[in-house]
Amino acid sequence: MSVSRTIRKVFEAIEQAEGAGARVRRSIGTPNLRNFSPFLMLDHFSIKPGAGFPDHPHRGQETITYLLSGGVDHEDFAGNKGTIEAGDLQFMTAGKGIMHAEMPRQNPDGSANVGLQLWVDLPAHLKKCEPRYRDLKAKEIPSVDVDDGKVHVKVISGQSHGVDSVKDLAYTPVWILDVEIKPGGKITQPLPKGWNAFAYTLEGQTVFGKTGNQTVVEQYHNVVFEPQGEVVYAEVDAGTEKSSRFVLVAGTPLDQEVVQYGPFVLNSKEEVYQAIMDFQTHSNGFERAEGWESEIGKSMVH
């Protein structure tokens, strides 16, 4: 028998304002959950037309954006630009420095653009790597059906029931699985040994754990697992009316200091001061920031 991971804690991600007019439910990167390496932050965002994240810098981390509905345009000072739509992902490695803008689509019906953004720490030796972008389109993501079709897993990164994801999207090894469970469905999902893991519930009510040690988790709650154990069990009660959906995420912990100041994530205060100085003087990776303005960010300038 595989050993089930026990739950360390469950807490709700409370909605707050962020950026220019965006609403965000932040779970990782709050007093409830800090220092959960390699994860720095998890935001469940809702951005209405006219809001967004105009030109801003990053250094030292990777961001993974998973769009659930709507569309988001991105553009950076290296000339990368593109749009992700519902079901697509964007992987951005800030490395030694990037400046970019992320702006939501102006949906004709005025609806919000909703998604998840996960910040992943970079190992110290990669903090100064060249910045890069990768998009992963919804149609490129393999999926697998489990438990007679009652469970559907999109294998964004990692492995599930014999299905392997597209390789090497992030520098720090991370698994991301989008799991939908219909009433009466259940899944046993193995995870890499010793990796930190959590599940964020997007919809419905999910029961985590084995009989005798089960926890019912509601929408917008983050479930943090203990690192011991090989599998996560999840099911939805057969008597429930609606399906549940959650993202299960695991990553290899990094043994290093995390010193974060806004969009800069480094290993010491000195490196943070250096990042601020480099950005202000357009040097050591921020040369291209001088005079750069994104086209998409101009929609925010009133």
Salient structural properties:
302 residues, mainly beta, Jelly Rolls, 7-stranded antiparallel sheet, 1 helix, 25 strands, 49% strand, metal-binding, RmlC-like cupin, Pirin
Topology (SSEs and partners):
Blueprint: E1 7-12, E2 15-18, E3 20-26, E4 39-58, E5 61-69, E6 71-76, E7 81-85, E8 89-93, E9 98-104, E10 113-121, E11 132-136, E12 143-146, E13 151-157, E14 159-160, E15 163-164, E16 174-181, E17 186-190, E18 196-203, E19 206-208, E20 215-217, E21 221-225, E22 231-235, E23 244-251, E24 259-261, E25 264-266, H1 269-281
Antiparallel strand pairs: 1-21, 2-3, 3-4, 4-9, 4-10, 5-8, 5-10, 6-7, 6-9, 8-11, 12-13, 13-16, 14-15, 16-23, 17-22, 18-21, 18-23, 19-20, 19-22, 24-25
Task: Assign an overall shape.
Answer: globular
What is the distance, rounded to the nearest whole angstrom, between the alpha carbons of the first and last residues?
Answer: 61 Å
Please write the string of helix (H) and strand (E) elements.
EEEEEEEEEEEEEEEEEEEEEEEEEH
Q: Given this structure, which CATH class is correct?
A: Mainly Beta
| Strand count | 25
Overall number of structural domains: 1
Biggest β-sheet strands, sense, barrel: 10 strands, antiparallel
CATH superfamily: Jelly Rolls
Structural class: mainly beta
Going by CATH, the architecture would be Sandwich
Which strand-content bin applies to the residues? Answer: over 45%
**Could you name the ranges where pLDDT drops below 50 across 5 or more consecutive residues?**
none
Predict the CATH topology: Jelly Rolls
Number of helices: 1
The radius of gyration is 19 Å
Helix content: under 10%
Q: What's the rounded overall pLDDT mean? A: 93
